[in-house]
Amino acid sequence: MNILLTGGLGFIGSHTATVLAAEGHEVVIIDNLCNSQRQTLDSLESITGKELPFYEGDVRDAPLLKEILQKHHIECVIHFAGLKSVAESGTDPLKYFDNNVGGSIVLIEAMQATNVKKLIFSSSATVYGEPQYLPYDEDHPLAPMNVYGRTKLQVEEILQDLSKSDLDWSIVCLRYFNPIGAHESGLIGELPQGIPNNLMPYICQVVSGKLPHLNVFGDDYDTKDGTGERDYIHVMDLADGHAAALEFVDKHKGWEAVNLGTGIAYSVYDLVSAFEKSSNQTIPKVVKERRIGDLPIYYAKADKALVMLGWKAKRDLQSMCDSSWKYQEQLLKLAK
Ligand SMILES: NC(=O)c1ccc[n+]([C@@H]2O[C@H](COP(=O)([O-])OP(=O)(O)OC[C@H]3O[C@@H](n4cnc5c(N)ncnc54)[C@H](O)[C@@H]3O)[C@@H](O)[C@H]2O)c1
Q: Within a domain: residue 319?
């Protein structure tokens, strides 16, 4: 299929591009590079051995989108482009509604106008909010606790309404849990700008000497070792999940939301020990107060993805840490 990846040079989009290209799909990318770098395109081309058409542009640019959709005979769009900092979404909500919700509306209108009606949307486990029960299944009440999560829920709702108004649409909203890890080549991975918000990129910067220690926000939660537990999922498993969702949207119409997680909760200390093993280094830690808004534990019920998409995460925590470390080593070599 001819597939447009919005935000395709970002962390999840770039890994997904490698899987789709390997499966023989024609991948086209649009990205405004607000949180990614052009060199990732070179890495993608060396991994895939293919030249991937790339447009440096914004999903809020309707004429550009229509041009790309028509010129490349796009059949399906995977919409990764979005801003993802929970903290920034609270201090600059309009930026998030404009980019994540406004950007999605412009994209959907351009697709409607060019008769492209297959869409996979990057949603998030944050749409669930405070757990009423665990693991979260897709029927769990939706009550995001922050602006970022609300932008994801709003887009999901717009897409659901759209699919009811026009039965030709085929839409899957993938609710990602906590993607970490990197491509096995070590050529692409997560490249955050500035001080990272998430645990794995933070650990990588501690190990590479850019940050002095890891802050552990709370070690007195009611969890197995007192630290927060999350459903970390290897980004290559997540990428495989998109390939499975693509097959699904090609054959079914309507709207679906599906969790992509492993169904396993790993603690901060689980991740730290696995990373210490990968890197053969000790990670200095400082325990701090709990952060407001952090949940003690959450993880996915991943059954729907298995039944509906035939997809299941295969890679374990050690392989997530080994691949992140391999990517980190590559970055350190390049910096020398
Ligand atoms: N990484 C996670 O933990 C996580 C979890 C749940 C959901 N998500 C969602 O998945 C998607 C991809 O996440 P990621 O981790 O790869 O993030 P990322 O920031 O690495 O990738 C997003 C890409 O989109 C681009 N972009 C942003 N706004 C754009 C716009 N208006 N026009 C064109 N390009 C734009 C950025 O430059 C970046 O390359 C996002 O929508 C994010 O909200 C991510």
A: no
